[in-house]
Write a structure and sequence with these properties.
mainly alpha, Aste57867_14139 protein, single chain
Amino acid sequence: MEERVARVLEQTRMQMPSVLTDEEVAAQLKRDMLKRKEKVRDYGVYAYTQPIAPVQNINKGFLLNTIKSVDTHNKRQEIDACYRKRDLEKKLDDRSDPRRRKRGRSRERSRSRERSRRRSRSRDRQSSGTAAEQNEREYWAARKAIKTESIREQVADRECTLDNAPDYDSSSSSSTYSDDKATKKALKKAKKKVKKQAKKAAKKQKQHKKQQDSTAT
């Protein structure tokens, strides 16, 4: 009681100036009485023992918060313990029951077989795909080699090398200008002939292949 009165007096001292007149004190008392009237209805005479303004107790709030956090932590631990207990009981039941053991083993075996089958299928597909690609590359490489060989055989006489290359002299450039023109024309004609012959050979090869396909079918 005395401590509460002392607190109220300290609050009033902090709120009010040091020097007060009689009218100011009377007005303050009237305000306090009006505030206490509402509490008197509920608490009666004990309303005069309580402070007018609600004072927040920091220690009490801290204690309430700590109690709540501890309660929630304990609840979580209890829930986790329940889940662990259920899992352990389930494992023990599975170990004790031979039927469940057999089912579990059969399931594991079937899963391992399925995995091995999938792996073997994927390996077979990869190997078949790589073999087909390799065969196709070899086929086209052989065809290209045959074509190049036939073109070289056709142009063997007109092939320009270091041995049969014409001599070039800077001093006699004006005199050999006409000869160069003639050689260029001859080379162009030779190239055209080679192209025509290559086209004819390709056509013949296509016709031969078509005939082979028709005979095979």
